[in-house]
Design a protein that fits this description.
It is a single chain. The protein has 4 helices and no strands. Helix 1 packs antiparallel against helix 2 and helix 2 runs antiparallel to helix 4. It comes from Noctiluca scintillans (Sea sparkle).
């Protein structure tokens, strides 16, 4: 509405300017004709005809200029409409582009958090594997029965009873140690598959997030390129 008001005002100003100029020209002609009519009454008829011709010419010129002005204003209005449309498209593009960038940025932050979880899980798994190796490769669990043969040889002064008591004490201690170390080894082995499963899940989630973020980045790039190509064609 504001633009139309300005348009009407501009048209009125242009018309007023044309009319003022033509009126001045017509007034000067009228003054000359009036002076001639007073000096020579017979020339009044010719003066009237001249004034009519001048008025007709002025009217035609004013109408032509007015029509030309209207045409120019119509073109200007069309240009403004096109400009407003393009401005609206730019605003819409910026809004959409910002939303896509924010979505991609958020995705990358989530990916980083999930990467940290996956790496921490892997560290725990590595530590558990090392711990299992240490517990399950203790000497009490890895030595063979043949290595204990020397322990069974009685001394020269040792009686049968003394030897049996010594063997009972030695093998009781050996058995107790073996049971304790064997149980620790089993517990270390049990937790590894559980941790491995957790790490597999974390890695799977991370891979899915990577693909999601890749698609989000592709969307940003393709949207930007397609709009830029379209804008260049406008």
């Amino acid at each position: 509405m504001k633009f139309l008001s300005m348009r009407v005002l501009l048209s009125a100003l242009l018309c007023w300017r044309a009319l003022s100029f033509q009126h001045s020209h017509w007034a000067r002609g009228a003054e000359v004709s009036l002076a001639r009519c007073m000096d020579d009454p017979e020339s009044c008829a010719a003066g009237v005809d001249q004034m009519r011709e001048t008025a007709s010419t002025i009217k035609t010129e004013v109408l032509e200029e007015l029509n030309a002005t209207r045409t120019r204003l119509d073109h200007i209005a069309a240009d403004f409409v096109g400009c407003n449309t393009l401005t609206s498209q730019v605003s819409s593009y910026r809004s959409s582009f910002k939303a896509k960038v924010e979505s991609h940025t958020l995705c990358r932050k989530q990916q980083q958090a999930e990467l940290d979880v996956s790496m921490m899980c892997t560290k725990f798994l590595t530590a558990m594997t090392v711990n299992r190796t240490l517990l399950c490769e203790r000497e009490s669990l890895t030595e063979s029965a043949a290595d204990l043969v020397s322990l069974c040889t009685p001394s020269a002064k040792e009686t049968l009873g003394m030897w049996l008591e010594d063997m009972a004490e030695i093998f009781s201690k050996r058995h107790t140690l073996w049971k304790k170390d064997s149980e620790a080894c089993k517990q270390a082995e049990v937790v590894i598959p559980v941790q491995q499963s957790k790490c597999n899940i974390a890695e799977s989630i991370l891979n899915e997030r990577k693909q999601e973020c890749g698609r989000a980045l592709d969307s940003v790039e393709s949207f930007s390129c397609s709009w830029g190509t379209g804008f260049g064609a406008r």
